[in-house]
């Protein structure tokens, strides 16, 4: 299978060499890697160019944008900039972060999954963070969810869900749309990926309402938003985030913010999330 990888990178000079080293060491090599240097002010460009010189399947694209790190929009705009430089000769497209270390069998294992069932639309491993000298699971989401840091889509799936949406919630709506189209999302617990920076470490204060806005644009409705907000704030061990998420939801609602999905898709998503919540309660 041909793997095309797009890596958005903003000031990742100290870490992206570890990511790229883990990718060029794969037992199944990617066909193309595009690093999008998004307004970096460090040596990200030089580090990537050194890899590209030694490995012709690696390329660099420079992008100018604001330095403000807002979740969702900035990273997907960078991803789309890189994706637009690619041809159609891929079987799997991946969006990955520039601060990951992949096990050498990562792409080989993904290949085995994708080849096992044509209805599998997405596959991913799990992110681990270092804490007190040990690598522990970065437990921010359910184990059937693929983290936004390491998304891999079958080509047909990527096209069917309409690509990636440049706003927060993109890494949830993609999987929900897979369910909508009766496609499978597979997580493999054997794939331990080292995540060198904790999720959200660079988000500024203006981002705090974005999660609630995302819940609104996913078509969740208030009940599901309240439950999801309570769970996420608890998992992050920051209970006051619950209020920010709820404020974000109502800000989006009062502004008449457009949903990321169609009316039919929103109804499906609402029913699906309620069913999953009931399963966990009972």
Order of strands, widest sheet: 3-2-1-4-8
Cα(first) to Cα(last) distance is 41 Å
SS element count, helices: 10
Beta-strand content bin: 15-25%
Helix content: 40-55%
**Biggest β-sheet, characterized?**
5 strands, mixed
Task: Kindly list the characteristics that best describe this protein.
282 residues, alpha/beta, five-stranded mixed beta sheet, four-stranded mixed beta sheet, 10 helices, 9 strands, 41% helix, 21% strand, globular
Textual characterization of the structure:
The structure is a single chain. With 282 residues, this protein is of the alpha/beta class. It has ten helices and nine strands. The chain has helices spanning 16-24, 44-54, 73-83, 106-116, 155-160, 170-180, 210-217, 221-235, 241-254, 263-281, and strands at 3-9, 32-38, 58-63, 92-96, 100-101, 120-131, 134-137, 150-154, 184-195. The strands form two sheets. The chain has a five-stranded mixed sheet with strand order 3-2-1-4-8, with helices on both faces. It has a four-stranded mixed sheet with strand order 5-9-6-7, sandwiched between helices.
